[in-house]
Amino acid sequence: MYLKLKHKDVFTLIQKHNLYGVIQDMLIDLMELDHKQTIALLLEKNTISSDKIVEKLRPTQLHLYRYLDEYDKKNPKGKYHGELVKLYSIFAREKLLPFLKKSDHYPIQEALDICKKEKFYPEMVYLLGRMGNIEEALDLIINELKDMQQAISFCQEHDDPDLWNDLINHSLDKPGWPKLNPCSQ
Questions:
Q1: Residue 51 has what DSSP assignment?
Q2: Quick count: other Cβ atoms within 10 Å of Cβ 102?
Q3: With 80 as the cut, is the pLDDT of residue 183 above it?
Q4: From CA 62, how far away is CA 104, in angstroms rounded?
Q5: Rounded distance, CA 50 to CA 167, Å?
């Protein structure tokens, strides 16, 4: 009844009477009432499996994002990282690149496809570099990000003579770019 009335005492009632096992069918309503309290409740007791929670929240991606974002902080083993890549691309772009860098538990090609679709160039550069496609990553830095300093840093990081040649040739062809002297590198 508290839930139907949208009364936040429902959380106290659940805790007081240990009603964790019966809330799985009410997850969406609880999340809409107060997503922070609901997530804290779910993560605190672990009486409902994360798979069941994800299944129940999947129709509402915002709720799923909020839950998985917090779940990953307590359980960083990578169980839902593939799904988190997609959710971060929708709801928290600023978290995406740091997440891609810290995790090895997502399908890299799917992550790249999502970033290509959304034109998330910094994330694409990182993923391409990680996949070994450093020439394509450098091309993105030069042509999409138009960041000479990042291009130089990228070449230094990968220490590949062909990359340096690509960058030098590009800088010679573009009048607005600073000229690179091959001898100074």
A1: H
A2: 11
A3: no
A4: 24
A5: 47
CA atoms within 13 A on the CB side of 170: 19
Q: Cβ contacts of residue 166 below 8 Å, gap of 6+?
A: 135, 138, 139
Above 50 in pLDDT, residue 185?
no
Across the chain, mean pLDDT equals: 89
pLDDT tens digits, one per residue of 135-153: 999 999 999 999 999 999 9
pLDDT digits (tens, 9 = 90+) for 52-91: 999 999 999 999 999 999 999 998 889 999 999 999 999 9
The pTM score is 0.86
Other CB atoms within 10 Å distance of the CB of residue 141: 26
Whole-number Å distance between alpha carbons of 7 and 4: 8
Place of tokens 């798979």: 51
Please, is 10 exposed, middle or buried when counting C-beta atoms within 10 Å of its C-beta (0-12, 13-18, 19+)? buried
Angstrom distance (rounded) from CA 37 to CA 41: 6
